[in-house]
Amino acid sequence: MFSMKAIFVVFVANLIFFKNVECGLEEMRGRITALASSCIEQTGATPEMVSKAFDGVLPDDDTFKELLYCMAKEQHYIDDSGTIDESKLKAFMGELVGDEAMANSMVDKCLTQTGTPQDKAYNIVVCMYSQHH
C-alpha cells in the first residue's frame, strides 16, 4: 500500500503535468486549490507555492514537501507512515489523464521513491513531471 502523502504529490503533479489538457483543467485547478487551502494553513506553505507548482516550479523545500504530503493525506492516497495505496493512486491518475495504461505506467515508475513520507510525496510529483515532460 502507498500513503496519502504520495497522493497529494500526485494530485499536484497531475495538474502540473496535464495543465495543457483543456478538458476539466479549471475544475482540477479548483479542486487542488481548495485542497491546498487547508494544507497551506497547516504547513505554513504559501498560495504562491501552489500557483508556481501549476507552472512546474517544484522547490526542493521542506515546507513545500509538507504541503504535498498534507494534500496526499487529504485525498487518502497516503497514510501517516508514508504508505501509498497504489490502486487508489492508479484509479485517480487514470481518471485524471483519461488513459489507464499511461497512468498505470507513470505510477509504476514513480512509486519506487523512498525516504520520509514528505520526501516520497515530493519525489513522486517530480518523477511524474519528468515522465510527462
Map the helices and strands:
Elements: H1 4-17, H2 25-43, H3 47-54, H4 62-74, H5 86-97, H6 100-110, H7 117-132
Helix pairs in contact: 1-4, 1-5, 1-7, 2-4, 4-7, 5-6, 6-7
Please give a quick description of this structure.
One of its GO terms (molecular function) is odorant binding. The protein is an all-alpha fold and 133 residues long.
**Which CATH-level-2 architecture?**
Orthogonal Bundle
For this structure, what is the CATH class?
A: Mainly Alpha
| Helix and strand composition category | mainly alpha
Shape descriptor: globular
Mean pLDDT: 79
Q: In the residues, how many domains can be counted?
A: 1
Subcellular location: Secreted
Family: Belongs to the PBP/GOBP family.
InterPro entries: PBP/GOBP (IPR006170), PBP_GOBP_sf (IPR036728)
Pfam family, one: PBP_GOBP
Index terms:
mainly alpha, Recoverin, domain 1, 7 helices, 70% helix, 0% strand, globular, signal, secreted, PBP_GOBP_sf, PBP/GOBP
What does this structure look like?
By secondary structure, the chain is mainly alpha-helical. It has a single domain, classed as Pheromone/general odorant binding protein domain (Recoverin, domain 1), CATH 1.10.238. GO terms for molecular function: odorant binding. Keywords: Secreted, Signal. It is found in: Secreted.
